[in-house]
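Bumping my old thread because nobody answered last time. Still need a sequence for this structure:
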């Protein structure tokens, strides 16, 4: 059908600050952390 909007997987949130795919926080399962060490975005 038409499901090519997502790259086979879960909803990977993208950091609006740098555009890098954020990873799920190990501490908070409901939060995401940007894997970009150069990004200042810690938590939304
Ligand atoms: Zn970022």
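Sorry it took so long. Here it is:
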């Amino acid at each position: 059908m038409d499901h090519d909007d997502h790259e086979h997987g879960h909803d990977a949130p993208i950091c609006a600050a740098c555009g890098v795919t954020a990873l799920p926080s190990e501490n908070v399962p409901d939060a995401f952390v940007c894997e970009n060490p150069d990004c200042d975005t810690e938590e939304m």
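The pocket of zinc ion is lined by residues 15, 17-18, 20, 34, 36, 39, 41 (CB under 6 Å). Let me know if any region looks off to you.
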